[in-house]
C-alpha cells in the first residue's frame, strides 16, 4: 500500500512543479520542462515497481507531464508552439543518449565508484531509445493534432477537459503501442500484452489526473 500512496503523492508533486515552473517562467518554463522531463522519464523507466497489483516501470508520471506541458502550450499559445516543444523534447532525448554513451567509454580512475552504476542505468537506454524516441514523436504529434482539432470544433471557453483527456488518452495509447512493440519485440505474446496493458493503465490514470492542473494553468496570466 505504501507504493500506491507514495505514487499518488509523487504525481501531485510532479504536476505541482510544472505549474510552479510555468507560473515563474511562463512559456519558456514549459519548453525547459519538456526537455527535462523526457530525459528524466527515460532514466526512471529503468526502475520496476509494484503498483495496484501490477508490475510497472517508473517514468510514466514525469513522461505524462510532458503531454500536460504541450497541452498548456496548445491551449494558450497555439499549435505551432506545441510542435516546437515536441521537437525540443525529441532532440533533448537524442542528445542525452549520445552524450551518456560517449561518457561511458572513458576508462574510470581506480578511485571511481560510480562507473558500474552509470553503466547499469545508461547502458539500458539505447535498448529502449529507438522505441522511446519514435513513440514520443508520434504520440506527441498526435496529441497536438487531436487537441487542436477538438479545440477548433468545440467552444474554446468550454470542454477543456474533453480536449485534454481526449487528446492525451488517445496519444498515450499510441505511445504505449509503439514503444512496447519496438522495445519488447520478440517477447512472448502473453507477456508483451501484460506489459502493454499495465503500462497503458498507469498512463491512463496519469492522463486523467493532470486535468485539474491544466485548469489551474489556464488561469495564469501570461502574455501571448
TrEMBL record:
Residues that span the membrane, as ranges: 6-22, 29-45, 51-73, 85-108, 128-150, 170-189, 195-217
InterPro entries noted in UniProt: YhhQ
Q: Can you provide one Gene Ontology molecular function annotated for this UniProt record?
A: transmembrane transporter activity
Q: How does it sit in the membrane?
A: Multi-pass membrane protein
Q: Is Transmembrane one of the keywords?
A: yes
Q: Does the keyword Nucleus apply?
A: no
Q: Which GO terms describe its cellular component?
A: plasma membrane
In terms of PANTHER family, this protein maps to:
QUEUOSINE PRECURSOR TRANSPORTER-RELATED
State the protein's name.
Probable queuosine precursor transporter
What is the protein's species of origin? Pontibacillus halophilus JSM 076056 = DSM 19796
